Amino acid sequence: MSEGQAPDAPVFALVVSRLPQDGLRIRFEADEAQRRAIAARFGILGVERFEAELLARRWQDDGVAVDGTLFAATLQPDVVTLDPVRQDIEEEVTLFFVPEHSRLARPAVAEDDAIDLDPGDEAIETFRGDRIDLGEPLVQLLGVALDPYPRGEDVSFEAVREGEREPSPFAVLARLREPKKD
After folding, report:
1. Which of 141, 142, 135 is nearest to 11 (CA)?
2. Which tens digit of pLDDT belongs to each residue from 105-124?
3. What radius of gyration do the chain's Cα atoms show?
4. Is the pTM of this model over 0.90?
5. Are strands 124-127 and 84-99 parallel, antiparallel or unpaired?
């Protein structure tokens, strides 16, 4: 495990010195144990698919740019019914890496100093040695892509109107379980 590596992110290393001039096409697919670890990390019911199709190429002399697509399928509990809700994710990936000694590396910032970042700017990550672990950045992209309030297709949440008595939670759940009338 590399320094700074989360214990539940798949290790997916790219060897920088072996990167061809014209780039390297990479396909990554997480195994079952890795998908279980990712699901546990985000507190979701499951990760059925976690794959990436990428192109890594040299960038800015000693840096590496990685572009491609992240594909995932997750199961999360519906925020209303708690039934499993599947979310298919297809996220564009654009990552930039430079050696930690590079002039493009982020400047060290003291804890109490402020730094202005433009959200439109792509973040540049640093790496040490000759390897870049792509697993953690891909897992972080999945975390950002997850729906924070997943709901099934026909599930709605109805707030109590003023003056109405609030129904018991069990009555609400019973109504959700009733078959729909067409």
Report:
1. 135
2. 665 555 665 555 444 456 78
3. 22
4. no
5. parallel
